[in-house]
Design brief:
alpha/beta, 375 residues, globular, seven-stranded parallel sheet, 29% strand
Length: 375
């Protein structure tokens, strides 16, 4: 099948290379540099300003499916263009807007878009959807982080994405479900120290990661997503935040106007940049509790995935990209056929689809360990 992958960055490049094992893939990006890397892997490439809606609509017409791996700030309008063009889409652009607002458009065009198909959001939603179809869920918790294998002070952190995206995670208010109602708290709050096998002690704190679950799973009384970092990182970030280093309003310095946020992101780029070949890992723990077959049960899913030195793929790119590639194959093979815009929890409700994605990931050594306990 012919597939167009929009975005040839860290994750988009991994998706293109993975799908090219079975399909005819064309990678589209505005950067000749990133396209050249994929061209060396034998992948078709095309340079295009993806922000040009008319050019994009013309570009994607020949393809059976489009994977959208563009930056979040352009994700919503890109998805809208693809749906207007009548394309099936697997999306990991993680834009801040509500993707479900495009559901009517997708149904009108008779096409399917699977959105947020990464690791978190992504696999955690799939897991919750899977259990919600089988039990009365009362509590959901996702703990997740991407971290360097060899942390260095003062931040003990390296960012697989741009620093400004990470900073937004630290500043955007965190929405969680508590007592059956949406509660909004500042990011970085309700910190707790937790132990993870093979890693040790990590610090968990509130972030705004529930996204579509606040709508689709509103019947679940307790839901929370927390980000994981090495101890010491959050205190330093909180100090910078309180001192105004992440403020968006411009300040005047020697006659020039500068946003503290932009300056901080620029300075942190060198501190947080994940170098090529630098080992890192992804750790995630998803907990789903509720009534099942007359018993109170707790399902716990653990992931520990590391940088692959053979392929050079980072763990964050593997865990995110392979999940999206699995979703693309679900659509191509007709295993998920419902027109509309669907977050991962919709897909997870289908036992066959959930098993397919797990097996797809396991074949690429991304393994989720599942255990069941009495709650």
């Amino acid at each position: 099948m012919s597939i167009c992958v929009l975005g040839a960055g860290m994750v988009g490049g991994v998706i293109a290379q993975d799908l090219a094992r079975q399909h005819d893939v064309t990678s589209v990006d505005a950067s000749d540099t990133v396209l050249a890397r994929l061209a060396k892997q034998g992948i078709n490439t095309r340079r295009l300003d993806i922000g040009d809606a008319q050019a994009l609509a013309a570009c994607v017409q020949p393809f059976a499916l489009v994977v959208c791996a563009v930056p979040g700030f352009m994700g919503y309008r890109t998805l809208k263009t693809l749906l207007q063009a009548g394309k099936q889409v697997a999306d990991i652009s993680f834009f801040p807007e509500d993707a479900l607002e495009l559901d009517a458009l997708a149904k009108l065009r008779g096409v399917t878009a699977l959105v947020d198909m990464g690791v978190a959001p992504g696999m955690d939603n799939l897991i919750l959807g899977h259990h919600d179809a089988q039990m009365q869920v009362s509590r959901f918790e996702c703990l997740v982080g991407g971290l360097p294998q060899h942390p260095k002070p003062p931040f003990f952190y390296k960012a697989p994405f741009s620093p400004i995206d990470v900073i937004e995670e630290y500043t955007r208010p965190a929405r969680l479900q508590r007592g059956g109602r949406v509660l909004t708290l500042p990011a970085l709050t309700e910190r707790e120290m937790l132990e993870f096998e093979g890693v040790g002690t990590l610090e968990a704190f509130n972030t705004d990661g529930l996204r579509s679950l606040l709508k689709t799973m509103a019947h679940i009384p307790e839901m929370v997503e927390k980000t994981l970092r090495y101890p010491g990182h959050v205190a330093l970030i909180e100090a910078l935040k309180q001192a105004g280093f992440f403020a968006e309003g411009a300040v005047e310095i020697n006659g020039a106007e500068v946003r503290p946020l932009d300056l901080s992101a620029k300075l942190l780029l060198d501190q947080w940049k994940l170098e090529p070949g630098e080992p890192e890992f992804t750790v995630m723990r998803v907990t789903v509790e509720g009534q099942e077959h007359g018993k109170r049960l707790r399902h716990v899913w653990d992931l520990h995935d590391e940088y692959d030195p053979v392929t050079g793929f980072s763990s964050m790119a593997r865990t995110t990209g392979f999940t999206c590639a699995a979703a693309a194959n679900l659509l191509l093979e007709g295993k998920f056929r419902e027109p509309g815009v669907h977050p991962p929890e919709h897909v997870g409700r289908h036992a066959e689809c959930f098993a397919y994605i797990r097996e797809y990931l396991a074949a690429r050594q991304v393994n989720y360990r599942h255990r069941t306990q009495a709650a």
